Amino acid sequence: MSMLHTVNKSPFERNTLESCISLAVPGSAILLIEDGVIGAMANTKHSEMVKAAMANVKIYVLGPDLKARGLNEGNVVDGISVVGYGEFVDLTTEHSAVQSWL
Amino acid sequence: MKYGILVNEGPYTHQASDSALAFTKAALEKGHEIFRVFFYHDGVNNGTSLAIPPQDDRHIPNQWSELAKEYNIDLVLCVAAAQRRGLLDESEAKRNSKAASNMIEGFRISGLGQLIEAGIQGDRMVVFGD
Amino acid sequence: MEDGDQVIKKFMYMNRKAPYGTIYAWESLEVVLIAAAFDQDISLVFADDGVYQLMKDQNTEEVGMKNFSKTYSALGDYDIKKIYIEQESLEERGLSLEDLQGLKYEDEDDDWAEKDSIILVSRAELAKVIDEQDVVFSF
Which domain CATH number covers B120? Predict the structure, then answer.
């Protein structure tokens, strides 16, 4: 079992997502929450980085945080799964540990 | 599963408390156990009894307090972080000759060892912060 | 992992923020010093701006804040001897290990010989170390 990483900051504001992607081993998962959901959006400056990462890691985004920000689930990068808080909990049980990238 | 939760930010400025509350509730609904929620840094401000948010806003300290009552969850404010930021329970207030205490029901104040213990005893530690 | 009936877990403290601008570095160090009493397998990581926490010659006199940088040198006395520094983070900032304070511990299994606590790792090596952890604290 590998690790679940959570990222809560926009890639336009901080390098958290970039650091997380560069340190997440293949097979681990990244869940974007809070302002981190901005990193899930397609057609941004950072979308290519996210797409490239998805060759190695599974990426999820928290739906309630997308909705709160008026971001459309349909506009996330292809292959990113939209999840709720219940699935957030499930992801923590399915992975060996959780690293929150603060 | 048994969870330890760490909250590093106070209510309102950051979403950390709201995310932690939503996660905690979701975990409880799925039948998991919350071993402890530990509040550190400005997170200790989640335990204030003096917050008066506008009526159309959520009351974060009350939400924790009610959650603690309903599910018997252990909510712990770090003593060093709380003293720095002026969060006192009755005995701390008395011991430091302060006029009043300001910790809401359902929380308790203890040392950082309680965070490490939550890491050891819990199956997962989930951190919410800035 | 079990050691007798005592559970030993791998705890990692991830430091990615510079000191003084926020309190995270200082309060993280406070957690580490308490954690040392619990006989767990402790690692510290300094990556991204976290590497600035270990800069030599910090002087906080004029900003009026407590200079806690000397406290890192006590980590060895607390039996904390795995301090990972990410090489790429140093390079990206034009820094080398020479710019950071040295951290040592005395090895009780080797006649108390003084040894380096600092382990310089590449990003790829650090990724593996992170993935082995049971509990990751970040502040």
Answer: 3.40.1260.10
